[in-house]
Here is the input.
Amino acid sequence: MQNPIVSRDDWLAARKQLLVKEKEFTQLRDRLSAERRALPWFKVEKPYVFDGPDEIATGEVYYNYEMRKVWIEEMSGRSVFYKDANGQVFHTYSSYGRGGEELLRAYRLLDLVPMGRNETGPNRNLTDWVRHHDRYGVSNFVVTSAL
Here is the structure.
């Protein structure tokens, strides 16, 4: 798909309009980050165990704050903990699914280019085109039988 071709003045006017929205988004992201940091903490008082291959093999895991069926081999997520000077551990934050995109700098760069992320496969996300190092075939093409 071809974007409109315009004069430099028209492009600059459109870019300035977008810049206003980008600044609003940055300010919103800053406020959201402050709210995230202000979340209450949960004191971890028992062994904290993450689901591994054995749990995944059962077909159901605790994911995104509830028990869910496993629909893909790897389910993204991040948990943040804090350990104080007394050795107490607190669960301060968790994020699942697209919640980790802020950590993927490649996404931030791809969002700037004309084709964007180009996630046009069946999952419509990063898993459509990124593979583990051992899941690429000859000439570094994706081995579809390994999907």
